[in-house]
Amino acid sequence: MKIHELGHIVLYVxxxxxxxxxxxxxxxxxxxxxxxPAGIPASAFTSGRTHHELLLIEVGETAASxxxxxxxxxxxFGLKVGESDDELREALGxxxxxxxxxxxxxxxxxxxxxxxxxPDGNEVELYVDVVDRDVWSDPGAVxxxxxxxxx
Length: 151
Prior knowledge:
By secondary structure, the protein is α+β, with helices and mostly antiparallel strands. The protein folds into 2 domains: 9-58, 2,3-Dihydroxybiphenyl 1,2-Dioxygenase, domain 1 (Roll); 76-148, 2,3-Dihydroxybiphenyl 1,2-Dioxygenase, domain 1 (Roll), CATH 3.10.180. It has helices at 16-26, 85-97, and strands spanning 9-13, 30-31, 42-46, 54-58, 76-82, 104-107, 111-117, 123-129, 147-148. A 5-stranded mixed sheet has the order 5-8-7-6-9. Strands 1-4-3-2 form a 4-stranded mixed sheet, covered by helices on one side. The longest helix has 13 residues, at 85-97. It starts with 8 loop residues before the first strand and ends with a strand. The relative contact order is 0.17. The mean pLDDT is 93.
């Protein structure tokens, strides 16, 4: 077997409408029309690359929070927001305009990244690739020390 690409992410959310607004209005995903599948409170989104890349399923306001600190499970997922630092700066401006707190900004040698959390505490990396890096000839660059990013 060989994995060809990461297909989609499914997130449980406390409040579907709040999360829909975040992913649609703040992050700019296109919501797939069609309503809720089989009566389940859910919404699907696409960037246009495939049928859906993100699915949100409502589990209610009393659902347990994501534990803080070192734990097993997802740390964050990354969303490419453009091809240049100028586009990353535009994303930063949009986040500020929407009142979204930026948790961090990192230069990963192969990417420049901003980190935020969605309304349920799922960490999201918004990034651009660094175009002058050829990771295929220098695969160790992916694990290079993290440096602060100054946009």
